[in-house]
Amino acid sequence: MRVLVTGGAGFIGSALVRYLVSDVGVEVLNVDKLTYAGNLASLKPIENAPNYRFLKADICDRAAINQAFETFQPDYVMHLAAESHVDRSITGAADFIQTNVNGTFTMLEAARQYWSALADERKARFKMLHVSTDEVYGSLGDDGLFEETTAYDPSSPYSASKAASDHLATAWQRTYGFPVVISNCSNNYGPFHFPEKLIPLIILNALDKKPLPVYGSGANIRDWLYVDDHARALWLIVREGRAGEKYNVGGRNERRNIDVVKTICAILDELRPNGASYSELISFVSDRPGHDARYAIDATKLEAELGWKAQENFDTGIRKTVQWYLDNRWWWQPLREGVYSGERLGVLKKG
């Protein structure tokens, strides 16, 4: 069994690749451009495994992607490569359109060409998974959950680019009969998470005794999903999910941002006491433009149809995550020193 994974040096992608190589035992080709958020150190546990190989390539480079298909001959494609940070999309939308829209188009066309030429038995087995986000659905009010039938209503350049790529995937299935399935996940967290995102940023700022920035009043709600639970879901969806269908992946762990930050502070107070509570570092800052109020996933379809269930709840997952960052300075210290030190991103200039 051969699986081509795009974006496998990123946060979710590396968790998936580690799982596929170590736990599942399939052959994996990891195709990644290695932008600022791509980090081969995240694959150190499996970098020398005989069933793992890496190709540095841009998903927008059709010739390179064609060659990857021809030489590796995958049974499944799991497409995760994307620009993913909302704040960066606010001030640099072009990269998001290029990678998330044009890159997905390139992947779909290269995969369709490859699939069309397969022998009948392999052609019937082949499938592509397009991995997306719950942010395509926009913002929820106080009640309700995102379902697979929820209308798209993206608010940021990031979520708009992912919505566009979802529509491309759906169109390729309907127009060409191409076997593609879509997953939409809630906010992921866990080990090897690039420190621009809320949870790792708060952990590392706290350890550095820097302010802990909370947008607005901190009342925005997210549904948190432990990354290893997500990796298991993705492998299940690409194998057993029905072509043309969508599957929402969520942890059923809604938390206000301010409560996430306070939880991290409380765990650090216990594990790395520092005299005063880390919560005294909390600093409320101006809100993000177009900041969605609430996300929450209804994962019933995935649970009922494919039998998936999250193994971590937020309390167990966040403790594991904080402990991992305490134990793995070797991974994050170079990123904090040379790639991203924790500065505010996505601030629009006035005037």
Number of domains: 1
Mean pLDDT: 96
Radius of gyration: 20 Å
Q: Give the CATH architecture.
A: 3-Layer(aba) Sandwich
Task: Bin the helical content.
Answer: 40-55%
Total number of β-strand segments?
A: 12
CATH-defined superfamily: NAD(P)-binding Rossmann-like Domain
Just give the CATH class: Alpha Beta
Poorly predicted sequence stretches spanning 5 or more consecutive residues: none
**Sequence of strands across the biggest β-sheet:** 3-2-1-4-5-6-10
Would you summarize the structure shown here?
With 351 residues, the protein is α/β, with parallel strands linked by helices. 43% of the residues lie in helices and 16% in strands.
Can you put this structure into words, describing what you see?
The protein is of the alpha/beta class. The protein has a single domain (2-193, 223-254, 290-313), classed as NAD(P)-binding Rossmann-like Domain (Rossmann fold), CATH 3.40.50.720. The protein has twelve helices and twelve strands. The chain has helices at residues 11-24, 62-72, 86-91, 93-116, 120-125, 157-176, 198-207, 227-240, 257-271, 300-306, 314-327, 329-338, and strands at 2-6, 27-32, 52-56, 76-79, 127-133, 180-185, 187-189, 212-215, 221-226, 246-249, 254-256, 282-285. The strands form three sheets. It has a seven-stranded parallel sheet, with helices on both faces. Strands 7-9-11 form a three-stranded mixed sheet. Strands 8-12 form a two-stranded parallel sheet. Strand 5, helix 6 (157-176) and strand 6 (180-185) form a beta-alpha-beta unit. Helix 4 runs parallel beside helix 6 and helix 7 (198-207) runs parallel beside helix 9. The protein is globular, with a radius of gyration of 20 Å. The N and C termini lie far apart (56 Å).
